[in-house]
Design a protein that fits this description.
The chain has one domain: 2-Layer Sandwich (Histidine-containing Protein, Chain: A). 41% of the residues lie in helices and 23% in strands. It is built from 4 helices and 4 strands; from the N terminus they run E-H-E-E-H-E-H-H. The radius of gyration is 14 Å and the shape is globular. The termini are far apart.
């Protein structure tokens, strides 16, 4: 059976960008899949299962990244990664709560 492959373009929505915490979340999610996951930004392509490689992309808020998945579960991997980005890695709500907490004094 031939490997499937696909790409998705996602946007970094959390205010701090793709720093270590969201890079860890992305790498951990990517490792759940057998597919090879690659993330590209400005002509640089890195391993989507490597926290440090992801963090070196310097992807700030609003940056669009291309995700490439190759393998039998490529579609499922892309769906899950797209959902993670759409949810802002869960950090958008956390940042809003932190801001409300610190300004509510």
């Amino acid at each position: 059976m031939a490997n499937k492959s696909g790409t998705r373009v996602v946007t970094v929505t959390n205010p701090e960008g793709l720093h270590l915490r969201p890079a860890n979340a992305l790498a951990s999610l990517a490792k759940d899949f057998n597919s090879t996951i690659q993330v590209s930004h400005r002509g640089e392509t890195v391993d989507g299962k490597s926290i440090m490689s992801l963090a070196t992309l310097g992807a700030g808020q609003g940056v669009r990244l291309t995700i490439l998945a190759t393998g039998d579960d490529a579609d499922d991997a892309l769906d899950a990664i797209e959902a993670l980005f759409a949810a802002g890695f869960g950090l958008n709500e956390e940042s809003a709560q932190d801001t409300n907490h610190t300004t509510g004094r």
